[in-house]
Amino acid sequence: MSTEKLPTRAENYSEWYNQLIQRTELADYAPVRGCMVVRPYGWALWENIQQGLDRRFKATGHVNAAFPLFIPMSFLEKEKEHVKGFSPELAVVTIGGGEKLEEPLVVRPTSETIIGYMYSKWIKSYRDLPVLINQWGNVVRWEMRTRLFLRTLEFYWQEGHTAHVSAKEAEEETQRMLNVYADFAMNDAALPVIPGRKSESEKFAGAIASYSIEAMMGDTKALQAGTSHFLGQNFAKAFDIQYLDESNNQQFCWTTSWGMSTRMIGAIIMTHGDDQGLILPPKLAPIQAVIVPIFKNDDEKSKVMPVVERLFQELKSFRVKVDDREDLTPGFKFNDWEMRGVPLRIEVGPKDVEKDTVALARRDMPGKQGKSFVPQTQIDSQVAETLITIQAALFDHARTFRDAHIFDPKDYAEFQEVLQNGWAYSWWCGKKECEAKVKEETKATTRCIPMDQPGGTGHCIVCGEEAKEKAYFARAY
Q: Do residues 34 and 119 both lie within one domain?
């Protein structure tokens, strides 16, 4: 690991982010422009995200399957709004096996079309419904401006696709999965997200309604961290997904789709990280605690290492690592693990051995403030308790920061001002013209129309006309 200091977030937030990802070995740039290589440390973080989500999906009755990477071009053209929305981002295969293909194949940007085709084969009766399927995989979207984890040509994600007998059931599923995402984001990733409905111009191509969870990053920009879409019967009609109802009549299904990607890693980095490096929430951190032995000579080593080994065995229920590298100073190791965002450091030196104690150092509270000494006999319970405390503290810190940077401006001039370094929570009439004006003049967009509304009416922050809902506006990644 480089000993050179990171740029501070205040100096250059973008460079801080890019360097941090590479220096902590989360990911690296691939030889193909706009693609990334996810390194083992980054993949371990993604695996923990996968497990947290997958557990929740299965608890709500979903099962996993896998669908092809290649989609016939004609499939995308069946749903006109869908193909229009994705056409600039498509990667298309025209040659295979040295010969020109009869029909071009699209490398999937999302799988509604191929899954819709399969559902039309599998679903025949109301008894076959609901179909609740998720797949873990990769997708390709030909982005022009890319950034590691946040926006790459190829990225990893999960996409759920469900089919139902009624609009009510499908809408309930859409909301259920949005709540699953919010629960994961808040409880596992320690992100205080805001769930809400996307505007007409910001919704998914081909959807009746789109919902998202929006998170505030450390530079106050917004990040869409997960989406859930009510597709109505658009894809069912395009792909003839029909079932025979209880009265023996043919009906079109009502469908949904929802997804969360490796963008979540970017959200965790930018929400919790500081000028020293990553700060990873304990529930997702690849390494929850690192034990650092401290000794100056072989005599001290012979006393310290047996204690370190015993503590390591006692902490096996956690994701724990012993840093036994002998060619590095304890100070270097401390800085190394701080940069990598390990939530808890356990220091064991000769004095600790004599006193039957260890030093615990919290990553979220650098320096003496985050250090405590605990008996070795209570190490298991102390580590468990400290990790729970860190998890809660990260959420509280992020929520306090978010709330301090959300404003309710009194007029359009103040609205423009607060959007330079924060979010605006304002009445909006819902008109696309007002939305377009905001985007043109501030580079901000409607992030979501939150589920929790104040009630009553107000005046649109842009045009002054009557508005029935408040929306969040912010510049975004």
A: yes
Helices 263-272 and 40-59: crossing angle in degrees, nearest 10, is 110
Q: Is residue 93 part of a domain?
A: yes
Q: What's the full length of the chain, in residues?
A: 477
Residue 438, helix vs strand vs coil: helix
pTM of this prediction exceeds 0.85: yes
Q: Do 360 and 316 share a domain, yes or no?
A: yes
The conformational region for residue 367 under phi > 0 = left, psi -120 to 50 = alpha, else beta, is left
Q: For 305-332, how does the pLDDT look when each residue is reduced to its tens digit (9 = 90+)?
A: 999 999 999 999 999 999 999 889 999 9
Q: Which domain holds residue 436?
A: 406-474
Q: Evaluate whether 269 touches 191 at the Cβ level (below 8 Å).
A: no
Instruction: For residues 440 and 207, give the distance between their C-alpha atoms in angstroms, rounded to a whole number.
Output: 25
Does residue 44 carry a pLDDT above 90?
A: yes
Q: What is the DSSP string of 7-51?
A: PPTTT-HHHHHHHHHHHTTSEEE-SSTT-EEE-HHHHHHHHHHHH
Nearest to 371 by CA among 473, 382, 381: 382
Band (3; pLDDT cuts 50, 70, 90): low
Instruction: Please state, in angstroms and as integers, the Cα–Cα distance from residue 71 to each residue in 17, 87, 102, following that order.
Output: 35, 13, 13
- Using CA atoms of 372, 374, 379, 383 in order, give the dihedral in degrees to the nearest 10: -20
pLDDT at 1: 53
Together in a domain, 305 and 265 = no
Please name which of 6, 424, 16 lies closest in space to residue 219, comparing C-alpha atoms.
16
Q: Which residue has the tokens 């298309």?
A: 92
132 backbone dihedrals φ, ψ, rounded to 5°:
-125, 90
Instruction: With respect to residue 110, please indicate whether it lies within any of the assigned structural domains.
Output: yes
Q: Are residues 171 and 118 in the same domain?
A: yes
Residue 419: closest CA among 406, 434, 432: 406
The single-letter DSSP state of residue 439 is H
What is the distance between the alpha carbons of residues 256 and 270, in angstroms, rounded to a whole number? 30
Q: Which of 272, 298, 329 is the last residue of a domain?
A: 272
Q: Number of structural domains, the chain? A: 3
* 434 part of a folded domain: yes
Domain identity same for 265 and 301: no
CATH number at residue 230: 3.30.930.10
Report residue 411 as tokens: 């007029």
Supply angle C-alpha 405, 213, 411, rounded to 5: 40
Looking at the structure, do residues 42 and 163 belong to the same domain, yes or no? yes
Give the pLDDT mean for 240-254: 97
